[in-house]
Write a structure and sequence with these properties.
Blueprint lengths: L3 H28 L4 H9 L11 H5 L3 H28 L3 H5 L6 H25 L3 H7 L6 E12 L2 H30 L3 E6 L2 E7 H5 L3 H15 L1 H8 L5 E15 L5 E5 L1 H15 L4 E4 H4 L8 E9 L8 E8 L1
Parallel strand pairs: 4-6
Antiparallel strand pairs: 1-3, 1-4, 2-3, 4-5, 6-8, 7-8
Helix pairs in contact: 1-2, 1-6, 2-4, 4-6, 8-10
Length: 332
């Protein structure tokens, strides 16, 4: 598998394995014997540490605590099986696989790694809740003090959302929205982007300026999402009787980001850049265009060969005094 989602899971798995390979040898040395053999045994115990990515749709339907408990149990079982496999590999004795489950050492190891499994799973769950990279920002204190930086924002809005909600009903419309957001994930990961926020039927994607400009990631993301939705069109038509359509507004420049809130803390970006991107998306929706980008951002981009730009002119956007030079982007 070469998908961006798989690569993200693989990096998470690598981080878990690395942590386990550090913790397990130390635990073995402290609770069994201080020897190189026991330290190596702890490393081998975790070499097969994995979770099948194909179970993702099943786990998405579970409640937070149910997912946490079940995932932790799976991690603990994988530890026990990996430990047994490690015993067998280091001794070259197949009988050690079964015998490892009866060793007195498990009285110490099982509770220890049960806690380890819960902590690791909880961190992964929180990373999903607050957003990829956001938990790292909080832990590293990147935005603890407001900081100025340059970012690109892409505003996506579903077309005809009010009509769809009326036709499908709120429950089925929400399932449609959930399916669409899930399809957004792969192109977002492929283009080194982050989901900034969900606002009703609107999705806001963001990049650090260098990441968004690189290979025109910010443009490729939009058309990547469109290609993903088109590829899944039969599934949408079968389940919802419609295929979601969306418009986009794209702009970049200086913003200020920082942690905001007490009861519910989140990282918030403020600046005229966001307002302009939102208004460009409104213009695209009003004029029945796919993607509208500001001239200021387009001047800094090298568009993919199959993307064409057509000038929209100097636009008078709601809430802005100065006119904004804008272009419509379409895929050939």
């Amino acid at each position: 598998m070469g998908s961006a989602r798989f690569r993200t899971r693989r990096r998470q798995l690598g981080a878990i394995v690395l942590a386990a390979c550090v913790v397990a040898p130390i635990f073995n040395v402290l609770t069994s014997e201080a020897s190189a053999r026991e330290a190596w045994q702890g490393v081998v115990d975790y070499m097969l540490f994995a979770r099948d990515g194909r179970l993702r749709p099943f786990f998405q339907k579970l409640r937070f605590w149910t997912d946490l408990v079940l995932s932790s149990v799976i991690v603990l079982v994988l530890f026990l099986v990996g430990r047994a496999t490690g015993k067998m590999l280091t001794t070259l004795d197949p009988h050690r696989f079964v015998m490892s489950f009866t060793e007195p050492h498990l009285r110490y190891a099982t509770p220890f790694f049960a806690v380890f499994a819960v902590v690791i799973t909880f961190v992964l769950q929180m990373n999903r809740l607050v957003g990829a990279n956001v938990l790292g920002y909080f832990m590293a204190g990147v935005y603890h003090r407001p900081r100025a930086e340059e970012r690109i924002f892409l505003f996506l809005d579903l077309q005809g959302s009010t009509r769809l909600a009326e036709e499908l009903g709120s429950a089925r419309y929400f399932e449609l929205l959930r399916r669409f957001v899930d399809d957004v994930t792969e192109p977002v990961l492929q283009t080194d982007a982050e989901i900034y926020q969900y606002a009703g039927d609107e999705v806001v994607v963001t990049w650090r300026l260098d990441a968004g400009l690189r290979m025109a990631n910010c443009v490729r993301c939009f058309f990547g999402i469109r290609a993903t939705v088109a590829r899944h069109a039969p599934r949408y038509q079968r389940e919802f009787g419609t295929v979601p359509r969306f418009r986009g507004g794209l702009h970049g420049g200086p913003v200020t980001g920082g942690e905001l809130g007490d009861l519910r803390r989140q990282i918030v970006f403020v600046g005229d850049i966001l307002n302009t991107a939102a208004r460009l998306e409104e213009y695209a929706k009003r004029m029945n265009l796919d993607l509208v980008v500001s001239g200021a951002l387009l001047d800094r981009l090298t568009l993919p060969e199959d993307v064409r730009a057509a000038r929209c002119g100097e636009l008078a956007l709601r809430g802005k005094e100065a006119r904004v030079d804008a272009y419509s982007l379409t895929e050939a």
